[in-house]
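Q: Predict the assembly, please.
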Amino acid sequence: MRFVDEFRDGALARNIAANIAREADPRRRYHLMEFCGGHTHAISRYGIADLLPANVRMIHGPGCPVCVLPAGRVENAIRLTQTPGVTLCCYGDLLRVPAADGMSLLKAKARGADVRMVYSSADAVKIAQENPQRQVVFFAIGFETTTPPTAVAILQAQALGLANFSVFCNHVLTPSAISHILQSPEIRQLGVLSLDGFIGPAHVSTVIGSRPYEYFAEEFQKPVVIAGFEPLDVMQAILMLVRQLNEGRAEVENEFSRAVTRDGNVKAQLLVAEVFELRRIFEWRGLGLVPYSALRIKAPYADYDAELRFQIPAVSIADNKACECGAILRGVKHPRDCKLFGTVCTPDNPVGSCMVSSEGACAAHYSYGRFREVR
Amino acid sequence: MTKPKTGYTRPLDFKHGRVDMTHGSGGRAMAQLIDELFVAAFDNEFLRQMNDQARFPAPQGRMVMSTDSHVVSPLFFPGGDIGCLSVHGTINDVAMSGARPLYLSASFILEEGFPLADLRRIVESMAQAARDAGVAIVTGDTKVVEQGKGDGVFITTTGIGVVPDGVDISGERALPGDKILVSGTLGDHGVAVMSLRENLTFHTSIQSDTAALHGLVAAMVAAVPAIRVLRDPTRGGLATTLNEIARQSAVGMMLHENKLPIREQVKAACEFLGLDPLYVANEGKLAAICAPQDAERLLQVMRAHPLGCDAAIVGEVIEDPHHFVQMETAFGGRRVVDWLTGEQLPRIC
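A: Predicted assembly structure:
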């Protein structure tokens, strides 16, 4: 497969692995957080941990859109499907996220709710066009990558005069999550979590560019390397981080130069700015309430805001007490540290959200890496 | 006054006609559908007895029996349709014991309003597949459900076959050290069906691999009677099949990613849709496990058969109290190849 196999070449990987092993200083540690679920997935799927020396450790970050969505918002969506005439469209992973009482959209669907899995926001607009008698709600989630398509869907619905289409907006922002982690007490005071550098998001950065990360590198003195989602990208980024740390640098470097520029996709940014504005505060699973970390639909597009149309209330649902998703999303704990991992919480019966999406730290570790825990 | 013609029924309109509730009522309309369509297409001495059951001579030896329901959507897909699929599916399940399949039954659930033209296409495809396989469809049943309560047509087939003496193929027989073989490229059927789904139409030259494998199995059993395990990796793909066997045999497995035969187009489609070809359905492939000293001979026999020309040795059975199926990635790491979680591709067969 052209343009893919080149980035999965085993011989090149061993080459980079040899460089990492040679250059990593055995007297120090390299605790690197990959922010994105896409990286978490690549690391687990390709067995990248096997190729790294013991003192280079990857810490999984919160960049899995399904994982950070609080149960309350899923509960909102489930209740919405009970409203007569409502068709809810969402991305596939969301169907299985548990809300209150183990209920999920998939279970609601089995009980008769009209829930449709879509591959893109455009599919939801099409469903609204084809079903004028239904109120079609698009359950929009995700980081900056999925936000522009949602903006386009709203603009399209407006152009088409679709009165039966609205968006339940849950879009969140990467930079606010990273600063929240860096300012968390575990890092700043307790020293529970040591973070030496970040692998920056791939697809998010194609939209927002590399500039927004310059602040962290400067303010927190942590190197950031933006990397693609292919396994060789990840390996190369690890090597670049090791080099920065060895040389005492804390800069933003761009490994994913084939797709990411410093300024990003300006057209997409303008689309987002046209339709969305910052929320003052938003709840994240694992991170709690994070100020200015999410988007809502601007007043001129309020007609397409499902939260207003259906008067969706704020609902907060506590996670299962034993579930460590919160700590895992902050990088404080590893999936193996959770008592529920692999016992009552499995990908087939997820308790916490990290076990749902294949990008979630727990699901990735369970599906690809759990043989390491039983030796 | 004209005299009524005795015994005249207007023939079924296979051009514009549609299934209606009378076709399942047990009355004359149903008898006509059976005569003009099913018996005409499947014609054989057992069916011609026109009883509620088929009577046939019982062969010597151990008999095997298997049943399979088919609900694939869409009904027609590149490389096949629900008709030939329903014949191949059950023949293959019977053949994976090493058996020679002999007889099939076919049960239809038709939805009111289904075009008779499509039904005829499906039934003729079944008849052709059964003739090609040398297996007779000896009995059947037809029911009709109201519009909106079915999806065109569902077909259940049941097969009977007989296992040659000295052949003992079973899922619990894999032993550490054994070799794992597959008969050809993985994921073709699932991707072919997926390419036609309404919400993700994409163009691909991939055809379903649907095929009856008992000829290939006969050649394999003749060359290596001591084959330990055979299974066709349908829903859930090779990953799921190997996990089933690992659990049954209480062993682990180690696959080598760079040995797995997967077409470029299938890889590309899976990459695009976020699927893993190891979990995508096959309808004309089998996985075999045999002793290491038999592996090379078995591979040669498979490659010499038209349905096994892309066969490959893809891994080994290993000792593992946790029964993990693992894979050495082409990248150089190791990972679990787990059971399928949730549903990857619904209604694939």
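The CA atoms of residues 155 and 368 of chain A lie 40 Å apart. The mean pLDDT of chain A is 92.
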